[in-house]
Amino acid sequence: MSTRAVRVFLPALRELERELQAPIPARLRILRELEFDLEELLAALLANGVPPEEAHRRATEALVPDRHTLAILDRLHAPLYRRLTRRVREERLRLIERSLLVMATVGVLAAGTTGLFRAKLLVDPSPYLWPVLGLGALLLATAGSKVFEVWIKRDHRVPARGLGAILGLSAAVLLAGFGGTILDFYHLTALLARAPDLANALVPVWLVRDCALLSVSIILALAGGLVWLVLAQWLALVSGARRSALGLDTHHP
Amino acid sequence: MRETDFDVQGFARDINELLVLSALRDEPKHGYQIALDVETDSNGLFRFRHGTLYPILHRLEDAGLIRGSWADEGGRRKKVYALTERGRRHLSGETSRVHEIVSRLLSLLRHPGEATA
Predict the structure, then answer these.
(1) What is the pTM of this model?
(2) Which residue, A77, A125, A138, B81, is most buried by CB atoms nearer than 10 A?
(3) What is the pLDDT of residues A165-212, one digit of tens each?
């Protein structure tokens, strides 16, 4: 954006930004384009001897979109998802979205559980694997819903909401996995103290079930952490671009 | 052309789009330059007001008739538009269509009842 000390059209741009409904990246592209054109037109009018106030008024009148034009721009820059679902009522759409989210989560979880079953890791699983899978399902649903909101719906109204939950659930999955392994270990130690001759039979079984528990919790936590990192970076990028476009980082009149 | 092919409201929009395409015929330009050239070349007859230029530019870009690209100028970002090959063909075809419509309209206005189908 402009490196000029004074960006005279910032108040008008900020007002437009408040009125535009398009996703933030599209909104910023519109504002960037508009600001350059406004400054160029203003300079041309000033060069032609038009007084500054009149030049500012004429440039604004010529290029700053009115409400009707803003509505057209919003329609043109609406995300594909919004265009496809325009005819569906809001409540019905929300219901469909939630159902799809639940189905997707159950699908992913079923595929993962089938994988574990085929690898014979669910024959005699750790009792702590189930809370890990439960938290993992919650994590998948939260991350999936945020990804859907930001990249499919392109809804940036409350962009950071839900990000903390993704990170928190990832940590909870990891803690449940490690905590379960430690508790399993104490349980095994107690058993072996009572019956040391069972060591050869018990230790390999417990090793396998705790490896499965740890692997599942680490993979789920890493996936959650990765989704959180990418989302947080993307939202920080968008927010930084917005602050720069609207001159919110520095003092402007 | 049948009478049902002609849409008066659409025609006004088409004219605006053709003015923009025509302004880009010789070289790439940014939005303000397009608006200024249209106004200057038409002696002030056609003017874009209240930002109406931008929906036209973005619609044409979506349709692949013009191509927008960002460039740096003095630390500022500007969007420059260029006519695509498809846009050039569209401009040529639509200019003939507009010519036909205007000819028929003039004929109708000058000699009512004698316009050819």
Answers:
(1) 0.74
(2) B81
(3) 999 999 999 999 999 999 999 999 999 999 888 888 888 888 988 999
Note whether A71 contacts B: Cβ–Cβ < 8 A.
no
Is a pLDDT exceeding 60 seen at residue B116? no
pLDDT at B81: 96
pLDDT at B9 over 80: no
pLDDT < 70: residue spans in chain A: 1-6, 157-159, 250-253
Interface test with A, best of B17, B48, B50 (most A CBs within 10 A): B50
- Output the CA–CA distances (angstroms, integers) from residue B82 to A150, B57, B69, B96, in the order listed: 31, 11, 8, 22
Q: What is the pLDDT of residue B111?
A: 81
- Give how far A64 is from chain B: nearest CA, Å: 5
Nearest to A62 among B49, B75, B77 (CB): B49
Contacts of A189 (CB under 8 A, 6+ apart): none
Q: Round to whole Å and give the CA distance between A160 and A249.
A: 19
Considering the domain delimited by B3-110, tell me its CATH architecture: Orthogonal Bundle (1.10)
Q: Mutate which of B32, B37, B49 to disrupt the A interface (most A C-beta within 10 Å)?
A: B32
Check CB contact under 8 Å for A37 and B49: no
The answer, for A65 touching chain B at a CB cutoff of 8 Å, is yes
pLDDT score recorded for residue A112: 83
* Global ipTM: 0.80
Residues 6+ apart with CB under 8 A from B37: B23, B29
In chain B, what are the domain boundaries? Answer: 3-110
The three-class DSSP label of residue B73 is strand
DSSP string for B19-38: HHHHHTSSS-EEHHHHHHHH
Strands B29-30 and B76-83: antiparallel
Cβ contact A1–B33 (<8 Å): no
A40/B55 CB distance under 8 A: no
